[in-house]
Amino acid sequence: MNENSYSQLPIGPKKKIALVAHDNKKDDLISWARFNRDALAQHTLYATGTTGMLLTKELDLPVHSFQSGPLGGDLQIGAGIVERAIDCLIFFWDPLEAQPHDPDVKALLRIAVVWNIPVACNRSSADFIITSPLLSSEYNRLLPLEYEAYIRRMES
């Protein structure tokens, strides 16, 4: 595809960030979020169940919590991405531990790539995203034109 095959979806400087962590990675995400609290406070935060409760308590910031991941929270975040209600995904997942909801995890990561949102799957990639000047500035996310045509058909 060439550049003319894409539409631009403007995203303001205040991003809608989803924070997710598997059980073995919750402490890592909480530690990372505590270290980056001031940056995160500039944005709207979302999380799956337990992670959201822990973040709210640790950061003393509002966090919109969905269901727990195994109960559908990963899918709710995926739906938020599709509905353009989530701009960025920070997902500390555990690649060495089988999860009962692995298909949901795969679907969430797939939909994040389909809709071209930034995704961090570990602390290093999360550090790169949180320190990027793009996080706090306006940004035009590119979406294939075929998505726009499909969305317009669905909305009419």
From TrEMBL:
One of its GO terms (molecular function) is methylglyoxal synthase activity. The active site is at D74 (proton donor/acceptor). Substrate binds at H22, K26, T48, G49, T50, T51, S68, G69, H101. InterPro entries: Methylgl_synth, Methylglyoxal_synth_AS, MGS-like_dom, MGS-like_dom_sf. The keyword Mitochondrion does not apply. Residues 7-156 form the MGS-like domain. GO terms for cellular component: cytosol. GO terms for biological process: methylglyoxal biosynthetic process. Keywords: Lyase. NCBIfam families: MGSA (TIGR00160), PRK05234.1 (NF003559). Belongs to the methylglyoxal synthase family. HAMAP family: Methylglyoxal_synth. Catalyzes the formation of methylglyoxal from dihydroxyacetone phosphate. This is Methylglyoxal synthase. It comes from Thermosporothrix hazakensis.
